[in-house]
Amino acid sequence: MIAPRHTLSTSSLLWGCAALAAALLAPQPAWARLWKCDAGHGEVLYTNDMRVTRGKRCELLTLPEAQPGPSRRAGNTAPTTSRPVGEPAQLVPRDDLRRRILRTELENEQKQIATLETELATAPADAQATLRQRLERHRRNLEAITRELDRLR
Length: 153
What we know:
The chain is mainly alpha-helical and 153 residues long. The chain is built from three helices and three strands; from the N terminus they run H-E-E-E-H-H. The chain has helices at 10-25, 88-122, 125-152; strands spanning 34-40, 43-47, 57-61. The protein has a three-stranded antiparallel sheet. Helix 2 (88-122) packs antiparallel against helix 3. The longest helix is centred in the C-terminal third of the chain and has 35 residues, at 88-122. The chain is globular, with a radius of gyration of 25 Å. The termini are far apart. The mean pLDDT is 74.
C-alpha cells in the first residue's frame, strides 16, 4: 500500500499565497544609507551602493527618515507639489543637508570647469575634442545644480 501524501487544503494554500504576496508587496522604506566618497581628482561621489564604496575614502551620511507621501490610488486627485509632504521639523534638517550637498557639488563643478578651461587652452589639437565634451558636460551639470538650488530657496 502506498502512503498518502500530505495535501494542503485550498484555504491554507490561499492564506499562504496571501501572506507571501503581502510580504512581497509591502512598502519598502523610502530612505537608504548614503555615502559621500572621495572619487579622486577632486571629485566627490554620492552613492547608496555599498559595493561602490570599497577602496574609497567614504563617510556615511546621516539623513532623516523620510515620511510616506500621499496615496496615489485612483480616488486621490489631490494635486502634487514640488515640495515633499511632512512636518517642517523634519523637512528643515533634510533640506539643509540637501542644500549643503548641492553647494559642494556646485563648487566642485566650478573647479572642474576652471581646470578644464586651462587644460583646453594648452591642449594639443587631437585632445581638444575630448576636453570640450568634458567641459560641456560639467557646464550642464552646473546649470542643473543651480536649478535644483533655486527650487530649494
